[in-house]
Amino acid sequence: MSPSPASLDPPSLEALVESGMIELESLHPGGLLLTAELADLCAISTGLKVLDVACGTGESACYLAEKFGARVCGLDRSEALLARASDKAGSRSLDIQFCRGDAATLPFPDGEFDVVVCECTLCLLDKMSALSEMVRVVRRGGRVGIHDLYWDQAAAGALRDRLTANEGEEPETFEGWKRLFERGGLVAVAAVDRSELKTRWMRDVRGQLGLAGQLRLGVYATRRWGFGGLWRILRSEHLFSNRRLGYALVVGTRP
């Protein structure tokens, strides 16, 4: 028996963005302000070659090229998001390469980039495999930087299990992200807590949608995935709102 469309396309923020139901360009807390902070921590500057892993709609890639003068390459697994990214870069006359690929097997040679960034995605992946690839393709002395969810040390195991079951996400703790970077071979690892941005971002998204938009989203999700899919999205919102779930920037240097 062939798998159902719902099993091939599970309920997710990315799927709603691809559908056009949620008109977000920066798919992470903090938007481009956090992208700018990450760029500063990674010392991105004019002419540096930067890889944006899981680039989504290309908003950050375009921003890094426009504001910092970087030579940017964006990688994502979604053809729909890559098409939007390419159109966006073209409309801004930006020379950005976008390609489809897997973060665990990056299609680039060793030491190809000066900086590799990944925004709000690493906790969805096999973290060590993806991080090892990011380290492999950055040059010696280059930086790897992310921002992502983290668990408070006191977060219950059942709460963590619910996030994994519902979203497939497995964040580290704040200190755990730093240790992961160190195990990946990075040095001078620094982490910055930006948990306040998560709550603000969720509030802003709800504000942008408005009550009517949230109702339309609920109808769309029910038609596409059934009531189970709608319930999964509502559970996700509740989980992301949990005070035990924080948000952090983490940057390290390849020795």
Protein traits:
Rossmann fold
Task: Tell me briefly what this model is.
This protein is 48% helix and 21% strand. It is α/β, with parallel strands linked by helices.
- CATH class, anyone? Alpha Beta
The CATH homologous superfamily corresponds to Vaccinia Virus protein VP39
General form: globular
**How many domains comprise the coordinates?**
1
Beta-strand fraction estimate: 15-25%
Task: Give a written overview of the molecule.
By secondary structure, the protein is α/β, with parallel strands linked by helices. It has a single domain (27-195, 244-253), classed as Rossmann fold. It is built from nine helices and eight strands. It has helices at 5-8, 13-19, 31-41, 59-68, 79-91, 127-137, 157-167, 174-183, 196-240, and strands at residues 49-53, 71-76, 97-100, 113-119, 138-151, 172-173, 187-193, 245-253. Strands 1, 2, 3, 4, 5, 6, 7 and 8 form an eight-stranded mixed beta sheet that branches. Helix 6 (127-137) links the parallel strand 4 (113-119) and strand 5 (138-151). Helix 3 crosses helix 4 (59-68) and helix 7 (157-167) crosses helix 9. It is globular. The chain starts with a helix and ends with a strand. The model is unreliable at 1-8 (pLDDT under 50).
